Amino acid sequence: MVMKKNHPFIPIKNVYEVCAIMTSMMREDWIYTDASGYRISLKRHEGFTSFSEKCRSHFKGNYIFKKDGTLITSKLGKTVNLDHVIDTLKSKDESLFNAH
């Protein structure tokens, strides 16, 4: 309530909306973050990277990012059999969880 009282023209009501906006800005590569994501910057600094750069370095060619932001597997990436995952989650057999 203090923010609304001190800054009545800003259309943000709570911290959750701030987090959603920051996450959106990060995904659109409008901001740069440090390795842990605690510090942000609008300009590139040493040790700060964009979201796209972090994803490319994390997945290392196993997945491909399309222009619309979706992530698809390349020939090097792992795929998951969704039916197997669902059967494992429904099962009461503990060995299935430890097998993979």
Characterization of the model:
The protein has helices spanning 2-6, 15-27, 51-59, 82-90, 94-99; strands at 32-33, 40-41, 63-65, 71-73. It has 100 residues and is mostly helical. The chain has two domains: 1-58, no CATH class; 60-100, no CATH class. The strands form two sheets. Strands 1-2 form a two-stranded antiparallel ribbon. Strands 3-4 form a two-stranded antiparallel ribbon. Strand 1 and strand 2 form a beta hairpin. The model has no long low-confidence stretch (mean pLDDT 83).
Characteristics:
single chain, 100 residues, mainly alpha, 2 domains, two-stranded antiparallel ribbon, 5 helices, 42% helix, extended
Topology of this structure?
Layout: H1 2-6, H2 15-27, E1 32-33, E2 40-41, H3 51-59, E3 63-65, E4 71-73, H4 82-90, H5 94-99
Antiparallel strand pairs: 1-2, 3-4
Please outline what is shown here:
The protein is mainly alpha-helical and 100 residues long.
Low-confidence spans: none
Distance between the termini: 48 Å
Which secondary-structure class do the elements indicate?
mainly alpha
Task: Indicate the proportion of strand residues.
Answer: 5-15%
Give a count of the beta strands, DSSP E runs of length 2 or more. Answer: 4
Query: Largest beta sheet, briefly?
Result: 2 strands, antiparallel
Overall morphology: extended
Order of helices and strands: HHEEHEEHH
Radius of gyration, in angstroms, nearest whole number: 20 Å
* Largest sheet: spatial strand order: 1-2
Number of helices: 5
Average predicted local confidence, pLDDT: 83
- Amount of helix: 40-55%
How many independent structural domains?
2
